[in-house]
C-alpha cells in the first residue's frame, strides 16, 4: 500500500505573500514542512501540489532543487491538484493531506489516526475542526468518488475535504475530538504560519527552544514556550 503525503502550497497568500519559501530561522518553510512529513514512518512518499500560476514557478523550481515530486494545477481547485497528484495510485492506497503553512506535527497522534484509519477501512479519518499539528487521512478511491460528484461546489474544491464532512451518509468517516491525546486547538493554532506575526513568533520559538539542534520534536518545550510568551493561561503539558 502506498501512503502519499500531498502538501498543498502556494506563494500567493493574501496575508503573507511568498510564505511557502520564506526562510523560517534560516530554513524555507516548505522544506521544514517536507522534513516534518518525512519523519512519519507510515508515509511512503511526498508530493507538493501547487498551482500553474507564474507566481508559483519558484515552488516547482525549489522542489526540483530538493529532488521532491511536484504537480501543478488550478489555483482555486485544490481538489483537482490532489486528484492529479494521486493519479498513479491505486484505489486502496492512501493520501495524507498536509498544508504548507504548518511546520510542526504531533507524529504520535498522526500515527494513531492513520492506524485507526487503516484498521477501520475508513474513507476519511480526521480531527474535529481539523488540526494544525495532526494530519487528515484519505482513501484514494474515496477521494476519486468525491471528485466524481455532480454537486461539488467551489468551497469543496478549494478546501479538498469538506465534501466528506458535508455528506457523511455517503462515506465511512471516523473523527476524533480536537483534544485527543493532549491536542490543544486554542494553542495549536499559534503554530501555523499565516501572517507576519505568526512568522515572527514561530521563528523566535525555534531559536529559543533550539528546535533545529534537538534530536526530536518536544511539544512540552513548545507548549511551555507558548505559555510563557503568548498565552495568559497555563497549558497542560503532554
Annotate the secondary structure layout.
Blueprint (H helix, E strand, L loop, with lengths): L2 E6 L14 E2 L2 E2 H10 L6 E7 L5 H10 L2 E5 L4 H8 L8 E6 L7 H13 L4 E4 L8 E4 H8 L6 H6 L2 H5 L6 E4 L8 H4 L7 H13 L10 H12 L8
What does this structure look like?
This protein has two domains: 3-181, Spore Coat Polysaccharide Biosynthesis Protein SpsA, Chain A (Alpha-Beta Complex); 185-230, no CATH class. It contains ten helices and nine strands. The chain has helices spanning 29-38, 57-66, 78-85, 107-119, 140-147, 154-159, 162-166, 185-188, 196-208, 219-230; strands at 3-8, 23-24, 27-28, 45-51, 69-73, 94-99, 124-127, 136-139, 173-176. Keywords: Nucleotidyltransferase, Transferase. InterPro entries: Cytidylyl_trans, Nucleotide-diphossugar_trans.
Keywords:
238 residues, Spore Coat Polysaccharide Biosynthesis Protein SpsA, Chain A, seven-stranded mixed β-sheet, 10 helices
Low-pLDDT stretches are none
Order of helices and strands: EEEHEHEHEHEEHHHEHHH
Radius of gyration from the alpha-carbon trace, in angstroms: 17 Å
| Count of domain modules | 2
For the terminal residues, how far apart are their CA atoms?
Answer: 32 Å
Strand content: 15-25%
Based on helices, strands and strand pairing, what is the structural class?
alpha/beta
CATH class of the largest domain: Alpha Beta
CATH architecture of the largest domain: Alpha-Beta Complex
Compact summary:
It holds the Pfam family CTP_transf_3. 37% of the residues lie in helices and 17% in strands.
Amino acid at each position: 500500500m502506498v501512503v502519499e503525503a500531498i502538501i498543498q502550497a502556494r506563494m500567493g497568500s493574501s496575508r503573507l505573500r511568498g510564505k511557502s519559501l520564506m526562510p523560517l530561522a534560516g530554513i524555507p518553510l516548505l522544506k521544514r514542512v517536507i522534513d516534518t512529513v518525512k519523519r512519519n514512518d507510515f508515509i511512503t512518499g511526498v508530493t507538493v501540489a501547487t498551482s500553474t500560476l507564474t507566481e508559483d514557478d519558484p515552488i516547482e523550481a525549489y522542489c526540483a532543487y530538493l529532488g521532491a515530486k511536484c504537480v501543478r494545477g488550478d489555483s482555486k481547485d485544490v481538489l483537482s491538484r490532489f486528484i492529479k497528484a494521486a493519479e498513479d495510485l491505486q484505489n486502496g492506497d492512501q493520501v495524507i493531506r498536509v498544508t504548507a503553512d504548518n511546520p510542526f506535527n504531533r507524529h504520535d497522534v498522526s500515527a494513531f489516526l492513520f492506524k485507526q484509519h487503516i484498521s477501520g477501512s475508513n474513507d476519511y479519518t480526521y480531527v474535529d475542526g481539523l488540526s494544525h499539528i495532526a494530519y487528515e487521512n484519505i482513501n484514494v478511491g474515496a477521494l476519486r468518488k468525491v471528485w466524481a460528484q455532480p454537486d461539488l461546489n467551489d468551497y469543496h474544491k478549494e478546501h479538498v475535504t469538506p465534501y466528506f464532512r458535508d455528506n457523511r451518509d455517503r462515506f465511512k468517516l471516523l473523527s476524533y475530538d480536537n483534544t485527543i491525546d493532549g491536542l490543544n486547538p486554542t494553542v495549536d493554532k499559534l503554530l501555523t504560519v499565516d501572517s507576519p506575526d505568526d512568522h515572527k513568533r514561530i521563528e523566535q520559538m525555534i531559536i529559543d527552544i533550539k528546535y533545529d539542534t534537538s534530536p526530536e520534536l518536544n511539544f512540552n518545550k513548545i507548549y511551555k514556550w507558548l505559555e510563557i510568551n503568548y498565552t495568559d493561561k497555563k497549558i497542560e503539558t503532554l
